[in-house]
Specification:
E3 ubiquitin-protein ligase rififylin; 8 strands; Transcription Termination Factor Rho, Rna-binding Domain, Chain A, Domain 1; Herpes Virus-1; two-stranded antiparallel ribbon; zinc-finger; single chain; zinc ion binding; Znf_RING; 3 domains
């Protein structure tokens, strides 16, 4: 069963109205999706780009988390990738839930420029109060000052001080780990980051040694997978390979239908099971003993 692309759909995906002479197909310049001309009639004043009503809601500074939560995940992903806020590969590695997409959009609105300037104003010297004048008789000349007072130098102009950029912490991946002993040297944040990259949940782990145990299990499973891939490449059957990319072994199961046919990375990108076409409720990683 083949799915139609937005260009082939007879009705607008947003308002469900049929395309006709007065309601033509137009592309939103913020998310790249195709809608009718009525749904993409507004433009951004600063850039003059054509935008759909959903993207206008996304970029509005007054939009709340609850309002963004009512928008489909498909549209949030399309806006982030087409607007070049984040690449598709980076999106798959860092954003696993819909709430992650919403937090990325909200943080993008509040993001400050990389270089900030702090102006330091020196205090201005107090101006001396004028001396009172004393009336003298006509035949007495006022005493002349010995030397004219030199004008006080003006304070130098304020100079901008450029703040030094913050150094981002080193990010670790599973490929960077050379042995089980190297896992002990990672921090708690690095342990959680590596587990997130490989779609391993660490809910319920409150101690560092619990995170280390999970990562060690993941490391051993990765070693076994690499050994199985080597044996497969030597002439064995490819029935255990992912049916989408044909590179990684099958290591996930689709809930609701129970099929095992893809790797975890390909399974996260699918909305329907490639075998039975049923809607994927959740993708769970499996570990082979």
């Amino acid at each position: 069963m083949s799915t139609n692309t937005p260009e082939e759909l007879p009705n607008c995906e947003q308002c469900s109205q049929q395309y006709n002479l007065f309601r033509r197909r137009k592309q939103c310049q913020l998310c790249g999706q195709i809608f009718c001309s009525k749904c993409t009639s507004k433009s951004i004043p600063s850039t003059k780009k054509r935008a759909c009503t959903i993207c206008l809601l996304i970029i509005n500074d007054r939009t709340t988390h609850e309002q963004l939560g009512s928008i489909r995940t498909k549209h949030l992903r399309a806006y982030l990738i087409y607007s070049k806020i984040i690449t598709s590969n980076r999106l798959l590695e860092s954003c696993f839930e819909k709430q992650d997409l919403i937090n990325l959009i909200q943080s993008r609105k509040q993001q400050t420029p990389d270089e900030t300037y702090v102006f330091v104003q020196r205090p201005i010297d107090e101006i001396p109060a004028p001396t009172p004048t004393i009336e003298t008789p006509n035949n007495v000349q006022p005493a002349q000052p010995e030397s004219a007072a030199e004008p006080s130098p003006s304070p130098p102009p304020s100079m901008p001080i450029r703040s030094s950029p913050k150094i981002a912490p080193t990010r670790k991946t599973l490929a960077d780990l050379s042995s089980l002993e190297s896992i002990q040297e990672l921090t708690v944040g690095q342990l959680k980051d590596v587990l997130n990259q490989n779609f391993v949940s660490y809910k319920g782990c409150v101690e560092k040694h619990e995170l280390i145990a999970k990562l060690k299990l993941l490391y051993r499973d990765k070693q076994q997978q690499s050994e199985s891939n080597t044996s497969i490449s030597n002439g064995q059957s490819d029935e255990n390979l992912c049916k989408i990319c044909m590179d990684e072994p099958i290591d996930c199961v689709f809930l609701d239908c129970g099929h095992l046919c893809t790797c975890i990375r390909c399974g996260k990108q699918l909305s329907e099971c490639p075998l039975c076409r049923s809607y994927i409720v959740r993708v769970v990683r499996v570990f082979k003993s």
